[in-house]
Input
Amino acid sequence: MKLLEELCRTVGISGFEGDVARIMQREFRKSCDFVELDKFGNIIARKGKGKMKIMLAAHLDEVGLMVKYISKDGFVSFVKIGGIDDRSLLGQRVVVKSRKGDVPGIIGSKPPHLQKEEERKQVIKHEDLFIDIGASDEKDAKKRIEIGDPITFESNFNGFGNDLYYGKAIDNRLGCYILARVMEKIPADINATVYAVGTAQEEVGLKGARVSAFKINPDYAFAIDTTIAGGTPGIKETESNLKVGNGPAITITEASGRGVVTHPELRKLLIETAKKNKIPYQIDVLEGGMTDGAIVYITREGIPTGVVSIPCRYIHSPSGVFSMKDVEDAIKLLTMTLTGFRV
Ligand SMILES: [Zn+2]
Output
């Protein structure tokens, strides 16, 4: 739990995953035979001496923003890194990760008092928003930050008291946490070589998974990520019937078939392992969105791949909600699946 909170509170937007990678490196060193940080920013660990190679991928990065322009008055314009709903940005507290340290900021906007009737009806776009870092002018702002600095939502992590928690960057620090725990739990004499990869730049095109899968060339792979839970007002059962707390999700396909199509043998193995060990699970057929699995499975000549994910509410927003029980069950499911790997 302490590790999960540390991971969620750490900042690492796509391309700036260094701090998250270092935490994973520290954890892998305790449990794995070999750990390396590759040229791309992926952290790769290895455990076991078996002939069969199995790759586990969990992306390190989170969605965020980046400084694009600083105005004469010292206000900051930004671009989005990854998929963020513009409507979730308004009024948020953010942190600019500058070379000089963390600079707090507020995403400002025009107060309702000054908005005209038509303005109030319009959805505000991110290009019309700005960040206030309390600078007196451009020169003052540039003493603290520079163009190209990454920005994230302010750190937060807390419990609701009934296995439900919320936090920043749960997509995909939950996956990172699960990956670290699974590597700890699988036996050293496992009949395979398991490669754990904390992948870089997933949110901007599944890039780290692409290069690391090519390098490792595994026989099988699993991606570990988060997925979209329903069960909240405004989401129809037909859109998502996954519920937070009902177990980890086993993906059949993502993005209506454009993402991973889980290999039938791995799908069978995951479901049978869950049933045999009485681990609750849910089946995910995802209409939009994909994971590292989508790129790993079309690497080289094709790599049979499965995806295990944690259903979350308010994904890609400043705070997502998840069940710790689902996380523990995902660790169990993956550990059992790898230990008894047979296809
Ligand atoms: Zn993700």
Observations:
- Residues 59, 171-172, 225-226 surround zinc ion (CB under 6 Å).
- The CA atoms of residues 79 and 98 lie 16 Å apart.
- The domain at 64-153 is CATH 2.40.30.40 (Elongation Factor Tu (Ef-tu); domain 3).
- The chain has a mean pLDDT of 94.
